[in-house]
């Protein structure tokens, strides 16, 4: 079992998270607007990946359809804002955000019971199906405006630069997600989820209430993902179904976790950082082969470091320990 | 789309050297005018993206090599078009547009697809820089109150006015018209605008079918046509779907006297794929190289087409011409302003009224193309060539209606 | 009219079946979910296009050549890359690996063939067959026939031939098969080769019927998912049943509910099926479904 910071308590993790968030909050002062926008992408990716980890990383139930919650969240928020004309932007946004999270939690609750009975690859496929159904319904039912697209409220205060505002908003949300993930990880629920990951049948036999645990994690993961989706959509300002139900949202969260370290919290954050930097900054200039290189990197990643960067670090630490032990003898 | 080891290495090298993520964007070189922007070169929109891309590049090449740059306020400048692939991802496009802004780029070119153009337009608008684009025609872009965003096309809902006028003068008058629209923002607004205008004009629009954005099978549409027998089918679909619809109509032997596919038959590859069956197909035509347009730089529409063919392998399309016209519009505005101040150039763009290779460039107060001067004409495939058949002022050939039946083409 | 819709659905379903059977086989025997399956399908389509354009070879005649070429590709893919990944990482991680390959193939296709749509149109592409009220395009009938013949051949091979028996045995009990002297690696690679060959064949059939472009790879991967989940994993019969049902559901939904809704219905069906009977209609206890 891997812990966030091995051997230390949850409080240390929380403190580190808060300190890190504070540090990141100061970054815009030193970055160009472009740097801030890259920061947005990173924070978004990290938030989404950690939200995915609450179910996928801890319990081993890999969802291949989290775009369902990003997109549904974004469209619920957009449609609620449309239905509240005359409200102040801040008020309408708050209502829309809460409603989007609540509705996605509800959606997750409804589909959780049947879908979480599926295991492994079947759960993954079912979630892919769910995300496709949501996409198709949102784009084909005229009232949901997925095809025509919908504008979101401008919630940026007058004297704040929009890229900074959304950077902070996304950072706030991502920090909340990380803190929640830490709490989950160190609670009874978290240990239960890890037990499910290791061996679900044995866990149930030993009295772990597997079904309620999995459902709780799924609902939490969905609500947190929706929260990110709502803020992301506002940052774009205008969305069609194609802008939020993106396949990248389904798969990249898994890539981040694999790259950084599956089942940890720091892993997806590191993975998101590395991938964002590589795809947006390093490959941003390449006109026509950036997709090829991204694919190649993925392949190399899986082949060369199947346990991610955390795996490499872990192996290194073990070796150090062994050396120390041997030296002390 | 040239890709050799050197370009790859160069861009990798530049990338590894930590591109301007920190403060201190480099100063703009004095002797070039940098025009930045994005085009989708991977993903669904890549086909058009490449046409737009080539239009931009052809104009850049022409100005720099044939005219030795442009002269503004007594100084000569080269044009430097800097593009990247946004992969039709709005977040990626916004980030990279911001990079251009930070690098001090003053003028912008647009991407393709309203869900990409709108978020990037918002950033450029806020920065007070002009954006010339030829890929975002959905109405939503022009109802935001933007002052700096200009489009070579009229907004989608106004684009088919000429087509509706043409249906109005058809002899014999059509008794029933069917619309089929793909479920994306552009195709939908295009069709809905035409439907509203058509109904206003008293046309018998009886059936409206919505198709998915991408289709693998058009048999349900074919069956509806078979049972309802409309005189006119107007499908607002993208090239690949249009071809599928046409092929299934042909192989099912279902005839429509007037088959109008908004996008598709304007492409040579489309007409080649259908061979003789493409005869008589109607489409939305924005530009024809034989149009009598004079251009202050290229000379004429025809000369632009000749120049393009000399230097690019890819077939010319109207998006190529409209892309080049974006640069031409910029140069006209810069010359008129006699300055490279983006605000002054923007003001001149807003009042621009000049003939170009692409037609008379003139924008509405909201920034989209003037529906009369930059609107589409009705095109028809006649003897394998894309002709303009309506309005009469710009026609290159007389329309054929009703078009020959599939069976006749099969024999011929 | 209903008859016409039904026939249209079956014809479309034939394509779905053929495009999914390779995916199903790989999933069933190796447990590998190949996200580059759709890209393999497209490679077959582009190969048919090239042979038709450059050599004037009819796609149906090119079919065996393309299948052979794809077989080699699939064999090599398994022996070199997938095998490495499944050994070192997990099966789920191999999914990401194949996703990476899908991206690479797609990008390569764009670079080689441009992003424009391509279509293969032999002279008979515009002819049709009529049975009473029902009319179907000739190429569509050809595609359906190709898919039924190939699926039957595959089913027979798996059922009666030695290599088929070995593949099935390996799928059921890898270790036991190894103990009996089966070269597991070779069998896995053969399966992967067969899977790619059928993907290539599907590409040829698809190219004959409809225009295609590089981004379509996602579509054919996702379709394979749905077909396999409906029909059941690892068997040609399952792919056939799943594909045909999907085709009919597709055209019927378009006819009865609205032309925009087939996809929504399709995925709804997928999710429902998973909930009710995850093994699929004709599912068995092959590796992937355990």
TrEMBL record, chain C:
The name of this protein is: Branched-chain amino acid ABC transporter permease
**Main localisation:** membrane
Q: What are the entry keywords?
A: Amino-acid transport, Cell membrane, Membrane, Transmembrane, Transmembrane helix, Transport
Per the record, the coiled-coil ranges are: none
Tell me which species this is from: Bosea rubneri
Q: Which InterPro entries match?
A: ABC_transp_permease, BCAA_transport_permease
Q: Where is the protein situated, by its record's location annotation?
A: Cell membrane
Task: Give one Pfam hit by family name.
Answer: BPD_transp_2
Q: Which family does it belong to?
A: Belongs to the binding-protein-dependent transport system permease family. LivHM subfamily.
**How is the protein disposed in the membrane?**
Multi-pass membrane protein
> PANTHER family of this UniProt entry?
AMINO ACID ABC TRANSPORTER PERMEASE PROTEIN (PTHR11795:SF445), BRANCHED-CHAIN AMINO ACID TRANSPORT SYSTEM PERMEASE PROTEIN LIVH (PTHR11795)
Transmembrane spans? 12-40, 60-77, 89-114, 134-158, 187-212, 224-249, 256-276
């Amino acid at each position: 079992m891997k812990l966030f910071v091995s051997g230390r308590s949850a409080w240390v993790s929380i403190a580190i998270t808060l300190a890190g968030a504070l540090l990141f909050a100061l970054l815009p002062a030193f970055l160009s607007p472009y740097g801030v926008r890259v920061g947005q992408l990173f924070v978004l990716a990290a938030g989404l990946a950690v939200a995915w980890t609450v179910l996928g990383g801890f319990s081993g139930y890999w969802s291949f359809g989290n775009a369902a919650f990003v997109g549904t969240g974004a469209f619920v928020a957009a449609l609620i804002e449309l239905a509240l004309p005359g409200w102040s932007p801040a008020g309408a946004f708050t209502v829309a955000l809460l409603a989007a999270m609540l509705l996605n939690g509800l959606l997750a609750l409804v589909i959780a019971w049947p879908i979480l009975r599926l295991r492994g690859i079947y759960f993954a496929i079912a979630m892919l199906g769910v995300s496709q159904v949501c996409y198709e319904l949102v784009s084909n039912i005229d009232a949901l405006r997925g095809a025509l697209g919908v504008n979101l409220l401008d919630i940026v205060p007058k004297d704040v630069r929009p890229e900074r505002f959304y950077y902070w908003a996304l950072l706030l949300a991502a920090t909340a997600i990380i803190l929640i993930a830490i709490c989950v990880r160190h609670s009874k629920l978290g240990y239960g989820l890890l037990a499910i990951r290791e061996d679900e049948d044995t866990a149930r036999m030993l009295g772990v209430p597997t079904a309620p645990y999995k459902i709780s994690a799924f609902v939490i993961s969905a609500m947190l993902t929706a929260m990110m989706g709502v803020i992301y959509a506002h940052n774009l300002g205008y969305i069609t179904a194609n802008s939020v139900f993106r396949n990248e949202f389904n798969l990249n969260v898994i890539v981040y976790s694999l790259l950084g370290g599956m089942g940890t919290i720091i892993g997806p954050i590191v993975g998101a950082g590395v991938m964002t930097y590589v795809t947006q900054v390093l490959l941003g200039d390449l006109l026509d082969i950036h997709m090829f290189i991204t694919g190649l990197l993925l392949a190399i990643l899986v082949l060369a470091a199947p346990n991610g960067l955390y795996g490499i670090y872990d192996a290194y630490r073990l070796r150090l320990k062994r050396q120390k032990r041997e030296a002390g003898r | 789309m040239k890709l050799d080891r050197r370009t790859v290495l160069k861009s990798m090298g530049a990338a590894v050297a930590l591109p301007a993520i920190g403060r201190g964007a480099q100063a703009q070189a004095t002797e070039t005018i940098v025009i930045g922007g994005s085009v989708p070169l991977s993903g669904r929109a890549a086909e058009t993206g490449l046409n737009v891309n080539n239009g931009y590049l052809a104009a850049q090449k022409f100005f720099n090599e044939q005219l030795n740059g442009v002269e503004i306020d007594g100084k000569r400048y080269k044009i430097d078009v800097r593009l990247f692939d946004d992969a039709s991802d709005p977040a990626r496009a916004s980030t990279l547009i911001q990079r251009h802004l930070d690098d001090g780029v003053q003028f912008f070119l647009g991407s393709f697809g309203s869900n990409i153009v709108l978020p990037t337009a918002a950033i450029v608008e806020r920065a007070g820089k002009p954006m010339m684009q030829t890929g975002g025609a959905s109405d939503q872009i022009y109802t935001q109150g933007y002052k700096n965003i200009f489009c070579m096309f009229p907004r989608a809902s106004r684009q088919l006015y000429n087509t509706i006028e043409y249906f109005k003068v058809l002899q014999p008058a059509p008794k029933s018209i069917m619309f089929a629209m793909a479920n994306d923002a552009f195709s939908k607004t295009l069709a809905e605008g035409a439907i509203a205008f058509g109904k206003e004009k008293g046309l018998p629009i009886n059936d409206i079918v919505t198709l998915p954005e991408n289709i693998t099978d058009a048999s349900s549409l074919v069956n509806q046509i078979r049972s309802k027998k409309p005189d006119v089918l107007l499908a607002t679909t993208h090239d690949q779907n249009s071809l599928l619809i046409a092929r299934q109509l042909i192989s099912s032997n279902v005839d429509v006297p007037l088959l109008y596919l908004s996008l598709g038959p304007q492409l040579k590859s489309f007409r080649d794929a259908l061979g003789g069956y493409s005869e008589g197909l109607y489409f939305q035509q924005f530009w024809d190289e034989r149009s009598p347009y004079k251009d202050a730089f290229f000379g004429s529409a025809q000369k632009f087409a000749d120049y393009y063919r000399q230097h690019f392998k890819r077939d010319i399309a109207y998006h190529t011409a409209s892309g080049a016209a974006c640069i031409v519009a910029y140069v006209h505005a810069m010359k008129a302003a006699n300055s490279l101040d983006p605000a002054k150039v923007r003001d001149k763009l807003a009042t621009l009224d000049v003939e170009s290779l692409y037609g008379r460039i003139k924008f509405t107060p909201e920034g989209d193309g003037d529906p009369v001067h930059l609107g589409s004409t009705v095109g028809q495939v006649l003897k394998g060539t894309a002709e303009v058949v309506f309005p009469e002022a710009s026609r290159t050939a007389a329309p054929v209606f009703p078009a020959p039946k599939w069976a006749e083409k099969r024999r011929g | 009219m209903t008859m016409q819709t039904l026939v249209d659905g079956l014809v479309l379903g034939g394509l779905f079946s053929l495009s999914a059977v390779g995916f199903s086989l790989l999933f069933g025997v190796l447990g590998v979910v190949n996200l580059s399956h759709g890209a393999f399908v497209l490679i077959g389509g582009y190969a048919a296009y090239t042979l038709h354009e450059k050599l004037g070879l009819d796609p149906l005649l090119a079919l065996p050549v393309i299948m052979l070429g794809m077989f080699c590709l699939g064999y090599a893919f398994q022996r070199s890359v997938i095998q490495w990944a499944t050994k070192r990482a997990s099966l789920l991680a191999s999914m990401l690996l194949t996703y990476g390959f899908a991206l690479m193939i797609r990008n390569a296709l764009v670079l080689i063939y441009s992003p424009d749509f391509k279509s293969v149109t032999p002279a008979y592409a515009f002819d049709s067959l009529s049975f009473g009220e029902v009319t179907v395009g000739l190429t569509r009938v050809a595609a359906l026939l190709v898919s039924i013949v190939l699926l039957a051949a595959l089913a027979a091979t798996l059922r009666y031939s030695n290599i088929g028996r070995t593949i099935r045995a390996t799928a059921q009990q890898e270790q036991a098969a190894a103990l009996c002297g089966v070269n597991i690696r070779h069998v896995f690679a053969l399966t992967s080769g067969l899977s790619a060959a059928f993907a290539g064949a599907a590409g040829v059939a698809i190219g004959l019927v409809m225009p295609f472009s590089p981004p379509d790879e996602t579509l054919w991967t996702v379709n394979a998912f749905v077909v396999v989940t409906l029909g059941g994993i690892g068997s040609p019969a399952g792919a056939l049943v799943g594909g045909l049902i999907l085709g009919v559901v597709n055209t019927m939904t378009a006819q009865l509910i609205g032309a925009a809704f087939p996809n929504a219905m399709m995925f709804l069906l997928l999710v429902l099926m998973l909930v009710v009977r995850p093994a699929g209609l004709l599912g068995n206890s092959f590796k992937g479904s355990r």
